[in-house]
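Lecture 7 notes. Example A: sequence first, then its structure tokens.
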Amino acid sequence: MTKLWTTCRSCRFYKRIYEQFNLHYVKCNKHYCTNREELISTKNGCDNWSKRKKEFDLSSERLLKVEEDIKMLIDYFGDL
């Protein structure tokens, strides 16, 4: 018996599938488990359930890119 908070939808392996509609991507009612590599129902659960982890990219390359983008915006909008 799975508990309410251990359903597939709250698992770190859960992914939502999007379909392309013209130039936009829209959510569809299909869900995917990256651990089992199959389509799933969000109400189910399994023994491999794992809590989602928040991950941040604070690498020096990423921060340098942000600094370059900010400088470009200042140069572009500085005359306004």
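Example B, a different protein, same format:
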Amino acid sequence: MNVYDYMNSEAIARHCQELNYSFTPLQTAWLINRSRRHTLKEKHRAYGWVMEHMPDEEVDLNLEEAAGGKAVSLRWFLKEYMRLEGACPENCFQPDFDWEGLCLAGIAKQEESPC
């Protein structure tokens, strides 16, 4: 997978390629998420590639109330994120949709750390 294709700025993508910059799994997932040129299906396919081909890492979500402040696995988070996006009603893609509340509710149900 070419992560540079997921960057919104062609100039920055070109610059990173010239530097031969290697993105971490978390950085790669963030770039995929922020891409304005890819469909949800394409993004989910790319998240799958990240989970399959890149090392897992802990992600500190800074959600002390919902998850006791514990870090979770990036793979777990991406799976949960894709599940929430897949189950999402059409209105969740509106700018004012409460994604944080939806994610907090899903993370709060996690009984043990997936890491």
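Note on Example B: The mean pLDDT is 79. The first strand starts at residue 58 and ends at 59.
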